[in-house]
Amino acid sequence: MNFRSLDDLNTTILRGMGLLPEDIDLIVGIPRSGLLAANLLSLGLNAPMADLEGFCEGRILSAGRTRRVRQLDRPPAAVRHALVIDDSISSGQSMRAARERVEAAGLAAKVTFAAVYGDRRHHPEVDFVFETVTQPRFFQWNILHHDILRHSCVDIDGVLCHDPTEAQNDDGENYAAFLDRAVPLFRPTMPIGRLVTSRLERYRGQTEAWLARQDIQYDELVMLDLPDAETRRRLGAHGSFKADVFRRSDALLFIESEHHQAEQIAAASGKPVLCTHCFELISPAASLATLSASARTLPLRVRLKRTPLTDVNAMRALARRVLGDKGYAIAKKLAGRGQ
Fold this sequence. Notes:
Elements: E1 2-4, H1 6-16, E2 26-29, H2 33-45, E3 49-51, H3 52-56, E4 81-89, H4 93-105, E5 110-118, E6 128-132, E7 137-139, E8 152-154, H5 173-181, E9 192-200, H6 204-213, E10 218-224, H7 229-235, H8 237-248, E11 253-256, H9 259-269, E12 273-275, E13 280-282, H10 288-295, H11 300-303, H12 312-337
Parallel strand pairs: 1-7, 2-3, 2-4, 4-5, 5-6, 8-9, 8-11, 9-10, 11-12
Antiparallel strand pairs: 12-13
């Protein structure tokens, strides 16, 4: 399972700029995520930017007053070499559609196509892939719109809504008011497998009502069955409760807002946790791919032994033990969709 954050995206783009031809004078983003990549690249190259439809219709986006953009004063028709970019490529469908749109526009400019991330180094639909990131993969900017949500456990406070303030978290009238009027944070557009929250079971009705108002779809809501918040604090049950639910489920990922709890959940469940506080994917151990690569440097007498580090079948068997049969099948299915 591979993850890239916005910080990773910016770093990859800065490194990838050296791959590009020097005469590119316009950056074109494919909506929506490609616009994010195009903006970062246009800032790095100090070049003007356009969205795909605008480019095809001869329009360029304006720049702020504080930044003098290279060649911004030139009319769109004078663009000689444009780069059309998307954040990622897998099946190539979006990039093929972009190519067809550009060709239909009959533009005089030379056009180069690129993707920041690809599941392989060379794709026929693009001229450049900045970094290879294999499936299954997800990004900070698409995680709540990704099919992996169906196979995830997701916290509520700090993820789907803002955390209560200290004054609101009184386990009384203020807290009840918070539950009714919680401010939404991240808004998922895909159904969630399990919502796993340290909210007490006695607040189920209000929680379900809020989720319904926000049109958040989910299969199961798992809440902490304790008498009051004081008992919950005394037992320190937040992380251990979530980890136990995650470990016993066939879910592949837990999405948690609090970093310390995320580390607890990953360690206790043996499965990865995405912390939305810093958008870091916390793994219980180094990935099998990393360990396997490291194992190639071991002495031959060590590598001859059949272990998950040196044998593909053993690696698969370990993954099946960690994820369970159903979880392993889901992971294979998610990886296959990106081929």
